[in-house]
């Protein structure tokens, strides 16, 4: 897969990056090099290879999934114009 100059301009437009016309050929080469590297990686046989989080075997740290109020309910509603029992009060908009 290769990227042409029009695609470089479109990518720059979508990313909201100002790219001068003289920079387009350089960026085109850079993008094509990246895509070539990704294509090269797809040729590697990874059957039977487990995903790793580190180069040394380790288990990811996990926290207990516990539901709580975070103990900061007062801070959460502190800037609200009106509250009641740690809930935001809003005007009724549907009758």
UniProtKB/TrEMBL annotation:
Protein name (Swiss-Prot/TrEMBL): Aspartyl/glutamyl-tRNA(Asn/Gln) amidotransferase subunit C
Gene responsible for this protein: gatC
Keywords: ATP-binding, Ligase, Nucleotide-binding, Protein biosynthesis, Transferase
Classification via SUPFAM superfamilies: Glu-tRNAGln amidotransferase C subunit
Role according to the record: Allows the formation of correctly charged Asn-tRNA(Asn) or Gln-tRNA(Gln) through the transamidation of misacylated Asp-tRNA(Asn) or Glu-tRNA(Gln) in organisms which lack either or both of asparaginyl-tRNA or glutaminyl-tRNA synthetases. The reaction takes place in the presence of glutamine and ATP through an activated phospho-Asp-tRNA(Asn) or phospho-Glu-tRNA(Gln).
Molecular function terms, GO-annotated: asparaginyl-tRNA synthase (glutamine-hydrolyzing) activity; ATP binding; glutaminyl-tRNA synthase (glutamine-hydrolyzing) activity; transferase activity
EC code: 6.3.5.-
Domain of life: Bacteria
Family (UniProt): Belongs to the GatC family.
GO BP: any one term: glutaminyl-tRNAGln biosynthesis via transamidation
């Amino acid at each position: 897969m290769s990227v042409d100059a029009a695609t470089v301009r479109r990518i720059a437009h979508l990313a909201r990056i100002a790219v001068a016309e003289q920079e387009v050929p350089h960026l085109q080469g850079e993008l094509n090099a990246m895509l070539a590297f990704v294509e090269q990686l797809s040729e590697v046989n990874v059957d039977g290879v487990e995903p790793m989080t580190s180069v040394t075997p380790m288990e990811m740290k996990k926290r207990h999934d516990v539901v709580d109020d975070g103990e900061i309910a007062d801070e959460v509603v502190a800037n609200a114009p009106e509250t009641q029992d740690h809930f935001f009060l809003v005007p009724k908009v549907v009758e």
